[in-house]
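Hi R.,

Here's the chain you asked about this morning:
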Amino acid sequence: MRFSTRRWFTIREILVIIVVISVGLLSVVVVLTNGMSYVQRTREKVIALNLAREWMEAVYQIRDTNRTRRAWVKDWCRLKINPLVDEWNPGCTVDDFRFTSGAYALQRLTALGQEYFALTGPWLTWINLGDGLDSGDYNFSLCQQSGIWYSCIWTPPTTSEGKYFREIDWLWLYLKDVPITWWTEIPCTWWIDPQCGNSRAKEFRFCSRVVYIGESTGEVKLCGVITNFKGK
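And here is the predicted structure, written out as tokens:
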């Protein structure tokens, strides 16, 4: 009877096995790392999208709050950026803060035990991370405390999810009672059309824009339209 004299792996075979196992483990690590990175990037984009949607809803709520508080006026004050300012003046002749050119930040205000949204601005600068973080970007900073997101204007953004900035981009204010064609759609500005007063039906076009820095840098933008509920 013959017995094999080979009882152990050779050093060469052991090295080959180690290399194969190492390559396999490295591949698993790379796949897991890339997968986690992708999940984080997706999470950041979803957060930005939800923040942009909240902005859209806040602008509509501001318009609706103006409408509720000034139901007897019908149209004069529906496009005010702060529903709580000059609230007892039926014609809103004192407060001139209505939607106009520029970019806005969102604020939460409390009055009579209730919470309201209002806009701060307009700022003449927009979010621009291409030149690095600066005071212009901090006008739109978002911070987070106990899971609640809020505007922390003029300070660096602080959240557990990265750096987030949010603004309303003003697209233009148009007269709603003018037929819309490419040659007659004139922006509603007091220096262009002196008839563009408070009593005219107007349409405000805007975009909710969120820019973020985290696992990656990205931007989300949603656009919408509100009117001042012109009625006769």
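One quick note: The first strand starts at residue 103 and ends at 111.

Cheers,
M.
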